[in-house]
Amino acid sequence: MSAAKPTKPADVTTAAGPAEEHIRRLQEERDHLQAEIERRYLQIRTAAEIQRFIGRTIEAPETLEQIVNLIQERFNLYYAGIFLLDPYGTYAVLKAGSGEAGRRMVAAGHRLAVGEGSMVGWAIAHRKPRIALDTGQEKVHFKNPYLWNTRSELALPILSGDKVLGALTIQSEQPNAFDEQDITILQGIADSLSNALESARLFSQVQENLQEIQSLHRQYLQQTWTARQEEIASLQFTYEDPDAPEPASALELPLVLREQVIGRLRLETPAPQLPAEDRALVEAVAGQTALALENAHLLRETRRALDELAMRERYQSSIAQAAALLAEHGTSRLDEVLRTLGEAARSDRAYYYEVRTHNGREFWHLAGEWCAPGVAPLINNTLFSQVPIEKVKDWIERLQRQGWIAGHADEFPPQEHEFLTALDIHVLLQFPIPNSSGSCGCLGFELLDGERSWGQEEIAALQTAASALTSTVAREELVYKLQSNLKETENLHRASAGLNMASSSSDVLAVLRQYTLLGQAEEVAINLFEHPFGPDRQPESFTPVAVWSSVPLAATPLSRQKLQDWMAVEKLLNPDVPTLVQDPASDPRLRTTAREVYVDTLQAARLLFTPLNFAGKWIGFISAAFSSDPAINEVAVRRLVSLSGQAAVAIENMRLLNETRQHNEELTTLNNIIRSASSTLDLNEMLHQVLVQILNATGLHAGLVSLVNPATQALELVVEHNLPPAMVEELRSSGLAGTLCEKVFRQGQAIAAPDLAAPAVDGDTSSLLAYGFFTYVGVPLEARGRVLGTLCAFGRAPQQDPPAGMRLMQITGQQMGVAIENALLFQQTQQALAETATLYQAGAEISAAQQYEEILEALRKHTIFGQADRLISLLMFDRPWSAESTPEYARVLARWTARSLDSLRESYPMQAFPARFKLSLDQVTLVEDIASDDRLDDYTRILFGEKLQGKSMLFIPLVAGGQWIGLINAIFGYQAKFTEQDVQRLMALAAQSAVAVQNLTSLQLAEQRAREAQVRSQELALINRVVTGVAASSDLRQALEIVTTEIVHALSVQRVSIALLNEDRKGLRVLADHSLIEGLPSAVGYPIPLEGNYSASEALRTRRPVVIPDAQNSPLTEAIHEPLREQGIETMIVMPLVAGNQVIGTAAFDILEKGRLLSEDEMRLAETVLAQSATAIQNARLFDQTQQMLAETEALYQASVGLNTATDHEQILSVLRSFTVLGQDAACVELSLFDRPWQEEQPEWLLPAAFWSQDTLPPPGRRPLKDLSRIDRPVVIQESELDSLPETFKHLLARASEIRSLLCAPLVVGGQWTGLLCAAYPHTVNFSDAEMRRLRTLLGQAAARVQNIQLLAETRRKADQLQTAAEIARDTSSTLALQKLLQRTVYLIRERFNFYHVSIFLVSEDGAYAVVQESTGEAGEELKKRGHRLAIGSRSVIGHVTATGQPLVVNDVTADPIHWPNPLLPDTRAELGIPMKIGTRIVGALDVQSVTPNAFTPDDIAVLQILADQVAVAVDNARSYELSQRAVEEMRELDRLKSQFLANMSHELRTPLNSIIGFSRVILKGIDGPINEQQEQDLSAIYNSGQLLLNLINDVLDLSKIEAGKMELSIEENVDIGALIHSVMPTVSGLVKDKPIELQQQIDPDLPGLRVDPVKVRQVLINLFSNAAKFTYAGFIRVEARLQQSPDGEAEVCITVSDSGPGIAPEDQKKLFKAFSQVDGSLTRKTGGSGLGLSICKHLVEMHGGRIWVDSQPGAGSRFSFTLPVHGPHTGQADRVVLAVDNDPGLLSLYDRYLSGNGFSVLPLTDPSLVLDRAQQIRPCAIILEVMLEGADGWQILQELKANPQTARIPVIVCTLQENQEEGRRLGADAYLLKPVLQDDLTAALNRLTGSRPD
C-alpha cells in the first residue's frame, strides 16, 4: 500500500519515532496473525473431527443432533442447526438443533419456507452461503422466538452436486462473528454432510429398486390368465355363386403371414363337411392368398419407393446446385437459385422476401422471384413487392413457431383463404428465413392448381434449401456487419488518434463533433466538475473548458457554474450512459440558468448529456443542444460512449500535462528566483527582481515586499512594483498596520482573496478596491520558524478560487525567507566589516595623530561626537582614577566648540564635578536633559545649559592599560539618542583615543601603542576573514577548514585541528585539519576518545586553554608519546570551542619548535578567533546535522516503504543493502532464518533465505548451528578474530577472498530471535553510531516483514489446502468415476501441498493387503504396473495405519525403522500415513512423502485427514454404485429369463388353446351335430374362457415386446381415422348388446389422413371401448375425434372415449397406466382383467408420438383421451444416430452397447464445447446429455440446443446423477433419467421420442 512522502519533521531529533511506531504496529500485526492462525488451526482440526464423525453414519436423528452440538461446542457458537428439504422442495424442516432451544424446535416441527423470508430459505433458494454480520440490519433474517440473543448468523446450503439437500445454520451472540475463512471451513463441513446424506439416499434408492424389480418379477409369474373379447374382422373380398345351393357348412381359415394373422378366408359350401383333401386345398389357397396379398403390398410399396427415390434425386440435385450457387455467389444470383428450386418443386412460383428498413419501419421486400411459363410475376406489383411487417406479423409468428406453413388454400382461415384465392393460389408452402436482428423473411413456393401438393419428404428437402438460404443470408449479414464494424473501427481509430494528438479541450471537442452525433448539435460544451463525482462527495460546481456553437456568441459561459443553478444532477445526469432530454422547456430536471441558455438562447428542441469517466471516476459531462431530433441509434450511442471515455482520458492527460507544465514553470520561476537571489548582494535589488518575476509568473498586476523593523517590530514597505504612487506614499507614511499584509504577518499564514468585493473576505479591503484592485494574495516570508515579512500581490480583476500563483507564492515565500535571512546576515557582516574598517581607519588616524586636536577630530569624524553641535572636550586626569586614588583635576587637552566662551577653562578641579554625578570607567554616561537632571550642580547646568545652550551631555571615559586616565564630554543642542552600535564604536575608539593620548604624552608609549594598534588591526582583519568565511559557507567542514588555515598562518604554528563532540559527548571526531608539515596524513574523521585524554577533557571541563610544553615527555601525554615523537611535536595547546553557554569541541595547536610557547597576545588572538567562529561553527554544524537527519529520515522512510512492500526475502535483502552499511562494498551478504525461534532452546538449523555476492556465487545450503552464542545487537568481527569464528559463519569466509571484517546482526521480532544477517567485507570497516543505529532500526522492520511474509505464505498455503479440500469435496459429490477422482486427488495434494510423492492405497477384498490404487509421477505409474501392495499390519507406515486406523507421522525416515524404503522413491526423508475410514471401517490409506525432514505440520495432518475422509466416502459411493450395477445386470438377466419363459409358455399354451377354441367353436356351430341347451352353455363358457386366456397371453407378449423395445409399428400413409373408428363400432356393439348403453359418435368430418399403424390404433380403441363397456352398466359410451394443435404447435388428432360409468377416484388414477395395476385388485371384484390393457395402450400411443390421459371424478363417468400426430412418428433407418455427451468414456461405451442392438448408432462426445456444432452437422435423431460436465455447464448447453432453430426439435434425454427434473423440464428436456441408467429405460425413451425428430 503506497503512502505519501512525509514532509520534513519540525524536530529532527524525533525522526526515528515513526520507524519505532511502525515496528510496533508490525509486531501487533504479527501477533494478530499468529493468533488468527492458531484459531484457524483449531477450527480445521475441529472440522476434521466433525467430518470423521459425519462419515460414520447419518441415518439416525440423534446422529444429526450430536453433529450440531459438536459444531456449537467446538466453534464456541450460540446455536447450530441442520435443515433438510421436504419432498416437495417447499419447506426446509429442522432435523437437528443444538441445546434446549434446538430440541424444542425439532419437537414443534419447526420449518422455514424456501425463499426470501429467512437466511436458511435464502441460502437454499440461491444455493450459496449468506452471512448476516448484524441481524438487526439484515432484511431476510428470521426473528426466532427461541433464539432471542442471535446477533450474527451464517446459513450454508448443503449441496450434492447441483441438488440442494438442506442448509446448515450457524448463529452467534456476537456481531461480526464470521468471515470468509469461517465460511470456507464450515462449508467443508456442510459438503461432508451432503456427501453422507447423498450416500445414504443412494443406498436406500438402490435397495428400493431391487425390491421393485423382484416384485415385478413375482407379479409376472403369479398373475392369473383371464379372457379377452373376440375381435371381429370385417370382410374385404366376397365371391358368391348364384347358381349354388344354400350353404350347409362353412370353413373359416386365418390368413397367416410370418406368424401374424393378417385376415381370414371363409368358405361356405352346400356340403355338410369338406373332405380332408378339399380342406387341405383350401388351407393351401389361404397360404397362397396371404403370400399374394403380401406381394401385392410389396409391389405397391416398391413403386411408391421408386417414385420417392426419383423425387429425392431430383431434389438432391437441385438443392445441391442451389447450395453451390449460394455458396459461391451469395444472393447475387438469387433468381437462378429460385428457378432451380422452383423447377425441382414443380411449383408455379418461387420467391424470396427479405426484411428491409426504411424510415424506421420494417418491410417485407420481394428480393427475388421465379415464375413458371405463363404465370404473371408479382415483383412489379407494389402491393406485393413491399409489404409492411405489421401486416404480416401474425403470419411471421406462425412461420417461426411452426418451422413452415404448408397447405391447400381451403385449409387456411377465411381471411387468408380469400387472399390466396384472389391470387389464384391453390397450394402454398413457405419457410422462414430469419436474420440476425430477430426479424424474419420467407422462402415461398406456390401452385396455381389444386391437383397436387407437397409431401413431407419434399417439404423436408425444401427446408434444407431454406436452411442454406438462411445460412447465406446470415453469412452476408455477417460480412456486412464486419465491413461496417471495420469502418466503425477505422473511424474510432482516427478519432482515437485525434484525441491522442489533441493539445487542448477545444481539439478534443472538435474530434468528438467530427466523429460522433455531437456534430449535429447547435452547441456542444465539455464541462468538468470541480472534483470527481462520488457517493460521499458530490461537486457543487462545474466549469465549461471548451465550447463550440453555431451562433456567433456561444451561449454557454466559460466560467465556473454552480450545478444547482443548472440542473438536478442526480435526476438528470447518469454516470454510465448518456441522458437525452426530450423537452428542455418543460423538463423539471433543468433549472433556470439551463433553460435560459438552452431554451431561450439556443432554442434547443433536444438536449444530450454524456458522462466523462476516467479511471472509474466521473469527472464531468458533455452537453449538446439540438434544434431537432438527432439521428440517434445504438451504434451512434456506443461510439459516443466509447469516444467520450477516450476524451476523458485525453482531457485528464492534458490536465496532468498542464499541471506538469505549470509545475515546470514554477520550478523555472523558482530557479530564476534563486538565481536572482544569488546574483546580487543588495537586498532591495534582490527583492525587487523576485517580486517582478512572481508577478510575471502569476499574471497579477502589482505587488510589494515588506519586512519587519527589528527595532520597532513594525512592518515596513521595502520594495514595490506597479503600485499607484498615491498608494505607495500612503503605505510609507502610514505604514502597513491594519492591512491584509499586516494580517498575513501577524497570523503567519497565507491569505488569498480571489474577489475583494465579495462579502466573505475577512478584513478591510476598501482601500484596495479604491485603488482598482480586486484580487489579493499574500504569503509570509519565513526562515527557521520566524516571520521576517510578507510578499503580497494584487490583481485588477477577480479570479478563481484559489487565485493563480497561490502555490508558487507560498513556495517562493519559503525560499525568500531563507534568502532574506541570508541577505540580512550578509548585510550585518558587511556592516561589521564596514564597522571594522571604520574602526580601523579611525584607529589609524587616532594612532597617527601628532596632536590632541587630531585625536578629537578623528572622534568627531568617525563617531557620534560628530553630531555634537555645542562643545566637545578631551580631558586627562592628572593621575589615573582608581578606588584608592581620585585625581585632583582634569586637564583639557583639546576642545571643539561652536562658539568661543570665556567661561570655558583649560582645566577643571575634580571637586567641580557634582557629588551625585558618578562616572564609570566602563560605560558611557548620558545626561538626556541638562536642565532637569538633578545630578548636575548649578554651575555645570548654567555653563552647559545656559551659556552653551545645550540640551544633552555625554561623558566617555578614557581608559588605557586598565587605568582611567581621562574623559571626553560632548554637549548637544538637542535631545540626543544613540544606538548601541554607536555607543560601542565610541567606546572602542575612546579606548584607542586613550592610548593615543598616552602615546602623545610619551613618544615611547606612542610607538608601542602604534604597534599594538597595527597588531589589533591585523587581528581584526583575521577575525573578519574568519567570520566572513565561516558565515559565507554552508558546509561545516569547509567552514572549519577556513578557521584552521587562518589560525595556522596567523600564529605560525605547524598544525591546527578542530574536533567536535559526538552526540553522546563521550568522544570527539576531527572535522578539520590544516598542517604545514609535508607528508603528514590528515586526521580528518579520526575519533578522539575523552577517557584518559587529559588535555581535551580538561579544556572541555574548565573551558580554558590547556598548554602542554615538552609534550613528548610530559606525563599528561604519556599515552601518545610515540605519535608525538614521530611527528616531532614539542608543544601541544588545546583550546575549548564555546558557543553561547555550550562547549561544542576543541581546537588543538601543534608546535614543532622546541621551547616555543604562544604569547599572551597570540593566545588571546586564538581565543578571540575561536570565540568568534564558535557560534558560526555551531550554526553550520546544526544545519549540517539537520540536513543529515532529514536525509536519514528520508532514507529510513524509503527503506521502510521498501520493506513494507517487499514480497520475498530477496527484496528485503536488496532494501537493506540499499539503505544500510550492508551495501558498503560488502563481498557477500546472507539473510538466514532459524528452523524455529531461538528462545530458551537453541535451534538446530540455519536456513538461507536470501543471498547476494559480488561474484554471483550460488547461494549456500542449510547448515547446522554450532558454537553460536546469542547476540542482541549488530557485531563487527575484525580480521584478528575471524579465525575463532563458529563453523556456522565460516562458509562466508570461504565464499569470498581476502575477508577483513564480518558483520553479524540478529533478526529479532517480539523478543524472539528468528534469524541472522551477515555481511563479509574485503577491508576493515568502522561504522559510525548513526550507521549502526540505522541498521538496528531497519533490522527490526526487516525481521517483522520476514515474519509477515512467512505468516502470509502460511496463510496462503492453508488457503490452498482448504481450497483443495473444497475441490475434492465437490468432486466426491459430483462423480462416481473412482479412478479419475483418485488421480485428481493425489495430484492436487502433491501440487498444492508441495510434497514429493502421494499415493492412495485401498484395502483388498480379502482384507489382507493395502494395494496401490493411484500414485503420482513416474514412480507412481511403475508402482501401479507392479500392483504394489503392503500387508496390513506389516512393518511399514501404510501397514501400521491400515491395521490401527490411526495416522502415523515419520519425521525422519532414516531414524525410524517402521518406514519401508522404496527404491523407486530414493529422496524420501519424511512420510505421513492417514487412514481412510467409513465410520470404524478402514477402506484404505493416504500415503504422503516429502524430501524434507519434519515436513508435516499439524495443519497439514488435519487437512489431509479431511481429504482422506472425503475420499473414503467417494470410494464407498463408487463401490455402492458398482454393487447396484451388478444388481441391475442380475435383474436384466432375470428379465431375459422371464421373457424366454413367457415365449416358451405362450407357445406351449397357444397350441392346446387353439384346439380348445377351434373345436368348441365347431361344436357350437353344430358342425358335429346338434347339441342341447346345457351343452351349449358349457361349450360357450369353454370357448369364452379360452378366448380370454388367449387374449391375456397376447397382452403379456405385447407388454414383453414393449418393455424389450421390440414392438414395431407398421406405419401407413393417409389412414382415415374416422373410418377406422367406424370399423371398431360393430365390435363395441357386441360388447354392450346385453346392456342399456347408447353408443355415440362425434367425428370431425374434415380430419386429415394420418401416418399411423392402423392395427395398433385399432387395438388401443378396442381396449378403451372394452374398459368403458366393462365398467358402464347403463347410460352411454361416446367416442369423439377432433383436430387440434399439440403444445409444440404440431397438428394432431385427439380421440376421446367417455362413458357414464362410476368414475375413478383421483388416488386411483395414478396407477391406471401401470402394468398389472387395477382400480379394484381384490379377488372379489366384479370385473375381470389383467391390468395390462391401459399400460399397453400408453406405450402404443407414445410410440406414435402421442399422449394419453384420463379425466374422471367418482360418480361422473370417465374420459380417456389420446392424441396422434398428423405427420406420424419418425421411422428412421436402422443406423439412426444418437449423439451421447458425457465426460466418462466408459459410460459412453455402455450407451453404445445398450443401443447398438436396437437400431441406433451412438456417436460419443467428451468435449462439451462441440455439442452445438456436432448437433447442427449430423442432425441426430436424439441427444443423450449429462448436465454435470467438467469445464462446461450442461444446463447452458441444453438451453442453447433448444434456442437454436436447427437443433430445437431434436429430442434431448438428460442422463445424470442430479435430481432436478423440474429444471430439466423448464429448459426443454424431453426425458430425464437418473443414473445408473437401465438399458430398457433408455431404449424405451428413445423409441418414444424419435417420432418427434424433425426431418
Please sum up the structure shown:
The chain is of the alpha+beta class and 1895 residues long.
Q: Helices and strands: which structural class? A: alpha+beta
- Strand numbers in spatial order across the main sheet: 3-2-1-6-5-4
Low-confidence stretches: 1-16, 220-235, 1721-1728, 1771-1775
Estimate the helix proportion, in percent. Answer: 40-55%
Sum up the overall morphology in one term.
elongated
Largest beta-sheet details: 6 strands, antiparallel
Give the termini separation.
65 Å
- Beta-strand percent range: 15-25%
Instruction: Report the average pLDDT across residues.
Output: 80
Radius of gyration: 58 Å
DSSP summary: helix tally: 46
- Strand tally: 63
